[in-house]
Request: fold
Amino acid sequence: MKMEEEKVDLLDEKKSQSVSYFDNPFSTTIQPDDGQESLAQPLTEAAIPNDHFVFATFVTICCFWPVGIFALWKSREVYKCASRGDARGSRRASNAARSLSWITFIIGLIMFILIAVVAIIHGHKLSEKLG
Reply:
């Protein structure tokens, strides 16, 4: 019975030391290799790179959603990395979000041009048949 009480106390103590991501989005608890918990230093707001979320949302809705979803995913990853204090990962996610957003925009633009060309050709052939 005494061992069970000790286990419960250890679990309660561990819960009180951990910090949830939802409590503060710019800090989180990480596990170092030695097994001890430590609080990472979050990036300051000025050090967080642009997440390109608005552009990623626009191209997802208006251009080509299959690639746009990945752009949105990477744009959200910017803050996840920043909350861990991972500046390099945050910059990588920001660059990936921007690149994927531009790729999505270009794909959408090419599709729009192809559809317009096909519509013009089809309309021209239809007008020749009618008259």
